[in-house]
Amino acid sequence: MLIKTPRGWEIPERRATPEDVFLNRRAFLQTLGIAGMSTLGVFAGCESSGAKEAPLIRGLPEPSATADLYPAQRNEQFTLDRALTAEADAANYNNFYEFSSRKELVVRLVEGWQTRPWQVEVAGLVHKPQTFDIDDLVRKMPLEERLYRHRCVEAWSMSVPWTGFPIKALVDLVQPLASARYLRMITFHDPQAAPGLRNDTYPWPYHEGLSMAEATHELALFVTGIYGHELTKQHGAPIRLVAPWKYGYKSIKSIVRLEFVAEQPKTFWNTLIPWEYDFVANVNPAVPHPRWSQASERILGTREIKATLPYNGYGEFVTSLYKT
Ligand code: MTE
Fold it and tell me: Closest residue (by CA) to atom 5 of ligand 1?
């Protein structure tokens, strides 16, 4: 018989205070049978304010051909040691340099950007190279919701319900060759749609990478939804990486190409400022960034400061990846 010992971060869900508010909204939407419909934007709201009238969530794309898949079943294995961040706080404070380096502006600048149709190309050292229409891909994948902490190297953090699928499910589908040691990921590049891309001091398109062991780790997700609905544009619609034990800059948004490669790929921030951003980017409170101490973090939407945990609290899970 398999006896499951709860890991340090798998603490009782009742401690994630505003989540009951969130669950009530999900139940409410499901009762009405409107989850995933075009009206969702009108109903989707701030989870923790206690406000009677939920504000409109900005940045939702037009409902796609897979909108009916949200909210997805929550995987109860992943719980939080803190409250969920209010959706409005997460939705209005974004790093998405393709649009702006000013976090508060991103939500406005993504307004007219179209994230459908969208294709994701899989190439490189792989048995089944192919190009997926995003909705065909999403329908093939096992979608689930997970509550994860997210830690930015700028020392702020949030906790959000992502919906996505383990990268491993896609890896199993396309079958990389044994010689593939890294997964390289690349963001869209359309300077007409995204004004930040006209600033050519950055090494566009945004690009990132994971070792194959990291990419196929059970915590590593390709995310297509947030707060029980499709992923909003400012969070990287229609598909982004989420690797919760790493600083947020690894979690590349709006991916258009995946390449299986033999050598460690270059990455956006490491190319730009190599002395500030390394490839691995694991959360480590003991190693300060030249501009931000990493010892503690500011919790978005609150006045709370918490001590940062190694690997963002996911150490028991991922430490074995880095044993030499
Ligand atoms: N991906 C792309 N393509 N462009 C970006 O500017 N910023 C990164 C990451 N992914 C970024 C990106 C950084 S620095 C962080 S902290 C997270 O996205 C922020 O994700 P969020 O806006 O959903 O909180």
Answer: 96
